[in-house]
Input
Amino acid sequence: MTKNFYITTPIYYPSAKPHMGHAYSSIIADFFARFKKIDGYDVNFLTGTDEHGLKIQRAAEKAGLETLKFCDDISETFRNLSKTLNLTNTDFIRTTEERHKKSVQNLWKELLQNDDIYLSKYSGWYSVSDEAFYNDEEIEELDGNKISKSSKSPVEWLDEESYFFKLSKWEKPLLNYYENNPDFIAPKARRNEVISFVKRGLKDLSISRKSFSWGIQVPNNDEHVIYVWLDALTNYISALNYPDKDDALYKKFWPANIHLIGKDILRFHAIYWPAFLLAAKLPLPKKIYGHGWILSGEEKMSKSKGNILDPIEIINQYGLDPLRYYLIKEVSFGNDGNISQKRLEDCINSDLANNFGNLCQRVTTFALSNCEGKIPNPIEFNSDDLKILNKFSGNLNYIRNKIDELDLNFYIEFIVNSLFESNKYFNDQEPWKKKDDIKRLNTIVYTTLEIVRKISFMLYPIIPQSSLNALKIFSINEDQIDFSSINDHNYLKSGDRINKIDILFKKIEKKND
Ligand code: MSP
Output
């Protein structure tokens, strides 16, 4: 039976070029997508751009461009970033596409038919930057300007006719759902935030705007466009060809396994989206994970704060895999993290070059001159060999469970420890002193090579290109990477050729240390 896995990133606003925060969400999603792929799943991985609403319309006006042309250009930079980040996304959706419009208008009709929509008037605060409605308690004043307490973005007063979604009606069903599905919102702290927010009471939600036109029209009333969040959230099913519930993609991949998002957009994903789905009688995604922010100093990195870090510049300077490794290891998953060039350089020098790169080089160089350039024959594993080998096999299901809990921190720590122990094993076993005991020498080399293979398999979701470069030692290609094979201590075939590989990571010379 095929196992299916569907993961999504948020769809990004093409209001300005991508920054490190966007790259972070995408890289993390790619990690899970790649892991599931090497663990035998059929993976659907969606990313894209969120192109409607006043925020985008104003950004286009400011740039002096026609709105769609403005979106075309920036959406393309996000699409290119997906390639630069070596993402394995299977689709890239734009909310200006016809397939998406059709899907959103259909969802609207479903909500209307089920008596969840009515026409009234909205009077209240709105943040264009967040595309969010706020009540009085959520607003504060700074230098005479009203701003949102949570995001600090400016708000403006709205007074206009609007369609409303009966969100209040879904307060109890949502609370029941959270209660019965304790893993639905993660991490735990975010789940608690959402539950207390809902418990304070949900008001009906304005879901259309009348004072501008850049959006999807409300069916049968072309004076209104659909609220950009109702539009945007629908991307997760429009990419699966909803409303065609018999479509193969929809049947195979809905409900999604994970909507990976930043904590800033939790309310939309953990309250509005499930309420819309409940109202439309559609299944709910299995998990919503709100990760932390990449900070610049103490603040969230964002365009409006002018403190953005360009992922392309970092990649040009250090390479992609070091950035992927750094973001996964040094930003504790679930929490906020700071980007520091010094720590990035430390990661490259100590973890990647010294621990991983060096191990690969040392064992291949040794095998090339002492084992005729071939995988040696392990005669008999002793307890030292088995100890290091069993570290992997004994933990296969444990690692899988940790991945299902999205415990990325565990996974990376496991690799860091394994690298440390593997280097220690090779040093302690001193194969260079075993030239008189060729059987033992062969077994040590075989064990170390097996470990290099296992670690390279496990590193594939984190640093895919470098993992493939390391696997050239064994002429193993991408299609052959299979997580379950790390259980096998005899995967490498004695007598197969060993290849010398190029240096995997160049050390950074540090001037200031
Ligand atoms: N368009 C909406 C999402 C719609 S999803 C149906 C949106 N877009 S965004 O471009 O502003 O941000 C999208 C996501 O980028 C955030 O949720 C978060 O995942 C990521 N990040 C943006 N800035 C970030 C940081 N400074 N740090 C980490 N990630 C952040 O919101």
